[in-house]
Amino acid sequence: MKLTFSHEDELFRQEIAQWLSDNLIGEYEQLKFRGGPGDEHMFPNERKRWEQHLAAAGWLCIGWPREFGGRGLTINQQVIFHEEYARAGGPGLVGHIGIGLLGPTLLQFGSKEQQQRFLPGILKGTEYWCQGYSEPGAGSDLANVATKARLDETDNCWHIQGQKVWTSLAHEADWCFVLARTEQGSTGHHSLSFLLVPLDQPGVDIRPITQLTGTSEFNEVFFDDAVTDAANIVGKPGEGWRIAMALLGHERGVSTLGQQMQFSNELNEIIRIAISNGAASDPHIRDRIARAWEGLVVMRHHALRMLSNPNQSQQPPEALVYKLHWSSWHAELGKLAMDVLGPEGLELNAAPYQLSRLQSLYLFSRADTIYGGSNEIQRNIIAERALGMPKEPRTKSA
């Protein structure tokens, strides 16, 4: 496990820190620390302009190979970039699903034509993507996907019928990668295909879901005979499950270190308020702050251990615990934030009654242990895949 960086790495850290200091100013100053989970509704157009600014300087798809327009940075340098970006208050990226998920998946599985068509828009920050996995009856268990796609050889298009839910930023996206069933009567993960579907068409209806925070980062997306070109299938028909699982592997990549730096920023804000309002004088609060800090250190070391795996194409079993760890830790951090705020945390002082940063943290973190794989499902995955325990008995529906 590598816990230190070389002299060259530290020079790179200085370079990116200086660039961010020089550029997160002027029209971009207001974007600092904005646009993260629970705050993704803020400044979407301004954040898109920021992403295009990043792209023009070559800081958007830093891990992509140079032949595809990226910087081809090492794992160490990517870790440093994400840490310094979060430390500087770099805003959440509207295009993070394309940059961190779809782009690497197309590099791995996409055809040359697909790479030429879709990667430049992600690289330049001009085309945005959302993820069409979860459905009302297929959340953590994607094998229950019911959305169907039928290839019509007359118009050479896939025709899609079904519904996706909890689709992050679908209202800001141009395209959606959709996991759909392409063989009539198939069940489980068999005969699923991975389709690239344009959202600006009559057969697509995007409906916002109002959350506990009062905002609508998530959406329902309905496909009513929506179409996409026959060539917009990644891999072959029936290979969707393999590709979908590989894509989720990218979700546990170097950006996790940036996520942890955002967590660190939140913890530092909690500590600052605890000192200023006297909550830090409570021994129980101090103990919880110390435990939160310890948990964050363990989380970082665990992430570095995962990233030190020499075979990056195959994650070690230890990687399976990461989602369970961070989501439980972050939910507890939300509770700590409210206890440090005290009665002030229950108040919104004046119109337009926007939540404070820590109020939003508390409310949004209630969902951490559900989205992206519920804790119950994550524990099953750890037991079955990492520990080799028998599969959970499944009862047949009447």
What is the gyration radius calculated from CA atoms?
A: 22 Å
- CATH fold name of the largest domain: Butyryl-CoA Dehydrogenase, subunit A, domain 3
Provide the β-strand percentage band.
5-15%
Element string (H = helix, E = strand): HHHHHEEEEEEEEHHHHHH
- Level-1 CATH class name of the largest domain: Mainly Alpha
Total discrete domains: 3
Q: Could you give me the name of the CATH homologous superfamily of the largest domain? A: Butyryl-CoA Dehydrogenase, subunit A, domain 3
Protein name: Acyl-CoA dehydrogenase family protein
Domain Acyl-CoA dehydrogenase/oxidase C-terminal: 238-386
Cofactor: FAD
Family: Belongs to the acyl-CoA dehydrogenase family.
Briefly characterize the structure.
Residues 130-225 form the Acyl-CoA oxidase/dehydrogenase middle domain. With 398 residues, this protein is an alpha+beta fold.
